[in-house]
Amino acid sequence: MIHTVKPGETLTQISRDYRTPLSDIIAANPTINPNVIYPGQPIVIPGFPPPDTIPFQIDVSVNNRRLRLLKNGALQKQYPIAVGRMLSGTPVGQFIIINKAPNPGGPFGTMWMSLSKEHYGIHGTNDPSSIGKAVSKGCIRMHNRDVEELSRIVPIGTLVLIHP
């Protein structure tokens, strides 16, 4: 997996986003200076498959409150979602699914899939009436049956594109 450094990112934050030890990232990138990284720089993140080897992709439209599952570029399924509220918006960008946790408890419903941005994920909900609204703290909420179905289909490393 190759991560492209964004403005303001540090290697420590990238390590936290991917839940990968900093020492592993440094070992996988022997030519970089860990104290000087720059926007646009490619960083190898060990332990994840290259996204182009996975036929699935998740496309999230924050404004339309819709998550689309694509396979080899073709629409497979579309799901209604809830997104972040005004002061805690859903992050826009390109991420990957880095892990899955069934039955995380509380407001996260029956499934949690972490994104490669610390504290954000795609998850179920204990409040199905929230789907279709901008009410979360930035995560993408789905009906429990939908997130369970999605988690059975997509592997770790699946690309997630989030846009307005």
Describe the structure.
This protein is an alpha/beta fold and 164 residues long. The protein is built from three helices and twelve strands, in the order βααββββββββββαβ. It has helices at residues 11-17, 22-28, 144-153; strands at residues 2-4, 42-44, 56-61, 66-71, 74-80, 83-84, 93-102, 111-115, 121-123, 134-136, 140-141, 159-163. A hairpin with an 8-residue loop joins strand 7 and strand 8 (111-115).
Which term fits the overall shape?
Answer: globular
Mean pLDDT: 96
Helix content: 10-25%
Which sequence of SSEs, written as H and E, runs from N to C?
A: EHHEEEEEEEEEEHE
Question: What's this entry about, in short?
Answer:
The protein is built from three helices and twelve strands; from the N terminus they run βααββββββββββαβ.
Give the SSE map.
Layout: E1 2-4, H1 11-17, H2 22-28, E2 42-44, E3 56-61, E4 66-71, E5 74-80, E6 83-84, E7 93-102, E8 111-115, E9 121-123, E10 134-136, E11 140-141, H3 144-153, E12 159-163
Parallel strand pairs: 3-12, 6-10, 9-11
Antiparallel strand pairs: 1-2, 3-4, 4-5, 7-8, 7-12, 8-9
Question: Any key phrases for this structure?
Answer:
alpha/beta; 3 helices; 8-stranded mixed beta sheet; 164 residues; two-stranded antiparallel sheet; 12 strands
